[in-house]
Design a protein that fits this description.
CBS_dom; three-stranded mixed β-sheet; CBS_dom_sf; 2 domains; CBS-domain; 20% strand; CBS domain; alpha/beta
Length: 291
Amino acid sequence: MSKTNILENITLSYFSHTLLKQKHSIPLITTAEDLAKEPISINHNATVYGAIEKIIECNISGILVRGSKSDGILSQKEIAGILLSEQKNIKEISAEEKMQEGVTVDRYAPIPNCADMMLRQKTNTLLIMEDGRVSGVLTKHDLVRHYYENYDESARITNAMSVGSFFVMPQTTLYDALNKMHTNQISRLLIKDEGGNPVGITTFKNFLNCAIYHSNRYEDNTFLSGFGKKIPISQIMTKNIITVSTNTALTKVAKILIEYRIHGVAVTSGQKIIGFVTEKDIVRHIAQMDI
């Protein structure tokens, strides 16, 4: 027997032994391939307007751009940067020119490893490649659903929540509010009145809906003068703030995020918002779990 065959036999024997040991501790190791879904995509001729339309229609955090030479990702966060930097209508901006290189993951990577990679690479989406093309995507939302459907642990949100929050006043312009989110790398802002009481919340999705609306208005200068520099945040904020208490189980929060198709909830104590639990917080919890 050749040295190559001997090495292959040793490797296969070790791998089989490892799997047998794992089956005694857990039924099955879930990998990226198990949770990955068919990517929702646009072609290389699409504009940023088309990307936003698809993101809103499918209620997703980002879109795969099938580029003329390679594929890439255009996320809500990246679109926010485009709105801040480009002083022209989003119908005139190429999605392919603005897409970012995606983060790839091995299809057999265990889920905690995928969660860790999302955090380290600061991305909401991992790409699974096959023959040089994207064959599947794995998102934070997929990990949150997996957590809710497969774990019944006693972890409370106090172990995972992000304490504190960023806020602006109702009269703050869209541009200034979006710039604050983009600069501080956050995905939501509380809106507080002069008495410090929360009156609304805004996420990237609010800005995307606003961008679509103004891009379709005749002779609208919302983009030419700098996106939203004359529009107060109170015009687009969501007034209904979904909240949970500090003793809520993390799996319950995951269920809320899935059912409402949202990315975070406010945490209250004594009728006061003290922080948020987001998909990112749950993904961080998953990354710390044993396989």
